[in-house]
Amino acid sequence: MKHLLHTLKANRGFILFLFSFALLRTAVADWNPIPSASMRPTLLEGDVVLVNRLAYDLKLPLTDLVLLPLGEPQRGDVVTFSSPAGGTRLIKRIVGLPGDRVAVRDGVLVLNGQPLAPRDPHRRGETLAPGWVVDALRATEDLDGHPHAVQHLPGLAARRDFAETTVPAGHYFMMGDNRDNSLDSRYWGFVPDRNIVGKAVLIWMNFGNLKRVGPFE
After folding, report:
1. Of 59, 92, 182, 185, catalytic
2. How high is the mean pLDDT of the chain?
3. Per-residue b/e over 139-178, b at no fewer than 16 CB within 10 Å?
4. How many domains is the chain built from?
5. Which of 34, 79, 93, 136 is surrounded by the fewest CB atoms within 10 Å?
6. Residue 7 within a domain
7. Is-catalytic flag, 199?
8. Which domain holds residue 136?
9. In terms of pTM, does the model score above 0.70?
10. Is 9 an annotated catalytic residue?
11. Catalytic residue among 38, 59, 185, 199
């Protein structure tokens, strides 16, 4: 016991730093590495995004207990959240708010009966694996004044049609920007607001491409 107390006393500065760091990550700001291609071309594998945990609410550190609401998620926000299918931390874009009617027809997002036809389409090659390059169609989609790039992969089998559904109260409909290569609300349903961790605000680092550091749409 004396040895333990001596060790704690000798390292109290470092222990205090670790505790403060844990409080910071669970209540104020966090970071999230991008492990998959589901948000291409907005976010790439290897990006590390900074997440503002105070964008929507103030939570008791180390818990999910909301102490003070600070704002409401908006269409077009890129957010991190716990998946309703298993709890895995995911990052997607909010395309449907509570009460919205959301559908997908032939790959086009339809919001409250209005198709959001992407504009300025252009084609390019997309590498899915070494030696496997497929045709990719990129364009700009606008969600309530939030223009952002989306990508379609016409040569892949994908879920390009989704029957209209109404987002229930307290829930959100999430989609990846890489529409033909994303497991999202089309597959596992709505995300309750309590599962949202925070809003991704910028690319903090990418060791393979330093030019990618900075804000994104």
Report:
1. 92
2. 86
3. eebebeeeebbbbbbeeeebebebeebebeeebbbbbbbb
4. 1
5. 34
6. no
7. no
8. 29-215
9. yes
10. no
11. 38
